[in-house]
Amino acid sequence: MYELTKSPFGPHTRFTLHNPLSNTGFSIVPGAGANVLEIHFNGQNILDGYNTPEELEAGKWGKSTVLFPFPNRLDGGKYQWNGKEYSFPINNAATGNAIHGFVREEAFEPEFVFLGQDLASFRCYFDYHGERDYYPFPFALELEFTIHDSGKFEVQVEVTNAHHDVIPVGFGWHPYFRLASRADLHQMQLPAAEMVAINDRMIPTGQRTPYSDFLQKKVVGETALDNCFISTKTGNYQMMLEGEDQTLKVKASASEFPFFQVFTPTHRESIALEPMSCNVDAFNNLDGLVSLPADGVWSGKMSIIWEGE
After folding, report:
1. How far is 248 from 51, CA to CA, in rounded Å?
2. How far apart are the C-alpha atoms of 227 and 198, rounded to whole Å?
3. What count of Cα atoms within 13 Å lies in the side-chain half-sphere of residue 19?
4. Kind plus residue range of the DSSP H or E element containing 284
5. For the chain, how many structural domains are there in total?
6. Which end of the chain has fewer CB within 10 Å, C or N?
7. What phi and psi, each to the nearest 5 degrees, are found at residue 244?
């Protein structure tokens, strides 16, 4: 049976849903952008998350960040919508872009907790009233995280447009996975996909090229990636990692999350596999961008499947 524990995590509250019989569970800090700190299956943490409140506050590497209202980068922070120009703050100084939206800075409210014999769920929400002049479009964002003893972790998202007109919407999630001591020691397999060509500021050029380097499972080794891909499969696709007698698959629907980012950070301690609903800079190139009508709802689901000992 799953149990709920609440504990202080800096100025926030950490919610831990854990089954002591299976030693499976996860921890989340809703007050800090609904950040998932850890996911355990059979006692093994598969996430490279924030270990301390200080790390969470610093937000380095964007670990387990909820990416909304856009994932990835926005060229110079600028975009136009309905004939008006808006400008996000530049928070990726190295490229001179805005990155990953702003809900990671917001407090989500706990809404519902379910504790079952072999699964548990945590639902939270954030109601935005349009306070930021660079995104003055009200919305409601609801997230539900579910863990199963069988080795599954699901993230469900639902966005409701609370504005009187159409709004631009993009969503992603930014988990880093660690199944071995180094990123280099993992084996990885990616679905059939095209790589999005980017310029020196990480903004798409409009070109795409077939990418087959990890179409068959192979060791990551010294491979360095910080790239966006678009799945060429219809239906569901999956990204796979193996390491030290563990395997995980990140699964998503190509209709909901046609794009994904693969990132091997320079510290080489983990690998980020990030399903995204749209391309990099989608507020400008409109590639995969959801134009959500007034009172409209967009929803999506991604899952992690784990196997191990």
Report:
1. 22
2. 8
3. 24
4. helix 282-285
5. 1
6. C
7. 50, 60
Residue 26 to residue 18: CA distance in whole angstroms = 7
Q: Which long-range contacts (CB under 8 A, 24 or more apart) does 155-160 make?
A: 155/301, 155/302, 155/303, 156/299, 156/300, 156/301, 157/299, 157/300, 157/301, 158/297, 158/298, 158/299, 159/68, 159/292, 159/297, 159/298, 159/299, 160/295, 160/296, 160/297
Q: The tokens of 124 are what?
A: 């939270």
- Residue 225: CB atoms within 10 A of its CB come to 20
Sign of the Cα torsion 50, 51, 57, 60 reads negative
Q: Is 202 buried (19+), middle (13-18) or exposed (0-12) by CB count in 10 A? A: buried
70-80: average pLDDT: 98
Task: Tell me if 143 sits within 8 A of 106, measured CB to CB.
Answer: no
- Are the beta carbons of 248 and 240 closer than 8 angstroms? yes
Q: What is the pLDDT of residue 309?
A: 78
**Which tokens belong to 250?**
């990140």
Q: pLDDT at residue 234 above 90?
A: no
Residue 264: CATH number of its domain:
2.70.98.10
Evaluate if pTM is beyond 0.70: yes
Domain of 64, in residue numbers = 3-307
Phi and psi (nearest 5°) for 45? -80, 120
**And the tokens for 234?**
């219809």
Q: Tokens 């998932």 identify what position?
A: 36
State which H helix or E strand residue 170 sits in.
none
Contact predicate 271/262, CB 8 Å: yes
Bridge partners of 156, per DSSP, are 144, 301
Instruction: Please identify which residue in the block is written with the tokens 């310029």.
Output: 199
In this structure, the chain runs to a length of 309
